[in-house]
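User: Hey, quick favor. My workstation is busy. Could you predict this chain's structure for me?
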Amino acid sequence: MISDGSGVMANERQGYWSLSCGLQAVDGLTVSKSALLDGDDYVAGTKSATEVYNRSLDRYSSHVQEGREAEADVVAAAMLVALEDDGFSLSPIMLDNIHARIFEPATVVGFDRRWVGRHRTVNITKSEPVLGGRSVTYADWRMISDQLRYDFSEERRHCYGSSLNEEFVRHFSRFIANIWQTHAFREGNTRTVALFSQKYLRYLGVRCDNMLFMDNSLFYRDALVRANFSNLELGIAEDLSFLNAFYENLVLDKNHNLSSYDLNLHGIRVDEDLPYRTY
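Assistant: No problem, here it is.
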């Protein structure tokens, strides 16, 4: 396999760009045509990740341009650089560092600097279409640090053994779902957790085809939502099976059908007067 001289193989470049570009869709973002051309050059090995990153900043530095496309461009480029960096630590600090690293550049296009790499100081809800407009219950902001410390401490105690199998995926998926549910940051949680998960897999010695994220990033987010939503009154339990299916495709080369239709809680809607209305 051909390398571009930076130690990154051609197939890895394609995967890194697919992950970085595709993950913008989890927040309804798409990169610009200019960024896609830079990405093509990166995949071809004619531009380095750093060059793509610098070009994304240069594109907006001469004139301040706030907007979703601009954010997608600079965050995707920053993720590309972070993916090429093998540095990793299994700690909450790593999660904070990743958030800061990929969203600091976005402050030039309107991302709030007060949120970069810092835990939120308010409780939040987010309407999820997959839940009929309902929100996952995220961690209380006062407990974010404690909850992350606990989850990471438990993960460090776990031994994955020496085989890649469904048990590996189930435990890994549960850990990733747990830290996503904490929702440590005001914005950018899914992109941060997804990038963390890929760097963690590489740390564990698992090489993945990251192109899966290009076409399935929305499924990935919705799978995280379903893994963390339950409602006893409606008979709904947390369902990790969708996230397991995604990671089994990614890690074990399975061929599960990643259908967003299957993820949706069909017939459940939020009503203005009642907590739920069912159809």
